[in-house]
Amino acid sequence: MVGKLDGMLRVGEAAEYLSVTSETLRNWDRSGRLVPTRHPVTGYRYYRQEDLDAFLAAIVAKREHE
C-alpha cells in the first residue's frame, strides 16, 4: 500500500481545513488558483498546510483592498 506524503493533507482534509467542499478545491485546482502536489505513484492530490495558509491570507488581503 502506498502511503500518504508526510505533512500533506488529502483533498478532503484540505477542504475541511479551508471550510469548503472537496469539489470547490478540485475546481480551484483545475483553474490554477491552488496547485496541489501529486503523489508520484497514485497521482492523488496533496496540499501543504503552509500553502493553504498562504492562499487564505491572499484571499483576506484581496478582500481588504476591495
Could you walk me through the main structural features you see in this protein, from its secondary elements to its overall organization?
With about 70 residues, the protein is an alpha+beta fold. The chain has a single domain, classed as Multidrug-efflux Transporter Regulator, Chain: A, Domain 2. It is built from three helices and three strands. The protein has helices at about 10-20, 20-30, 50-65; strands spanning about 10, 35-40, 45-50. It has a three-stranded antiparallel beta sheet with strand order 1-3-2. A hairpin with a 6-residue loop joins strand 2 and strand 3. The longest helix has 16 residues, at about 50-65. The chain is elongated, with a radius of gyration of 13 Å.
Write the layout of secondary structure elements.
Layout: E1 8-10, H1 11-18, H2 22-31, E2 37-38, E3 45-48, H3 49-64
Antiparallel strand pairs: 1-3, 2-3
Helix pairs in contact: 1-2
Brief write-up:
The chain has 66 residues and is an alpha+beta fold.
Roughly how many Å is the radius of gyration? 13 Å
CATH-assigned fold name: Multidrug-efflux Transporter Regulator, Chain: A, Domain 2
| Contiguous helical run count | 3
CATH architecture title: Orthogonal Bundle
Strand percentage = 5-15%
Relative helix content: 40-55%
- Biggest pleated sheet: 3 strands, antiparallel
Span between N and C termini?
Answer: 47 Å
- SSE string: EHHEEH
Average pLDDT reading:
88
How many runs of DSSP E, i.e. beta strands?
3
Integer count of domains: 1
Oligomeric composition of the shown chains = single chain
CATH class: Mainly Alpha
**Structural class designation:** alpha+beta
Strand ordering within the main sheet: 1-3-2
Shape: elongated
Are there runs of 5+ residues with pLDDT below 50, and where?
Answer: none
Keywords: Methyltransferase, Transferase
Pfam family, one: MerR_1
Domain HTH merR-type: 8-66
Protein name: Site-specific DNA-methyltransferase (Cytosine-specific)-transcriptional regulator
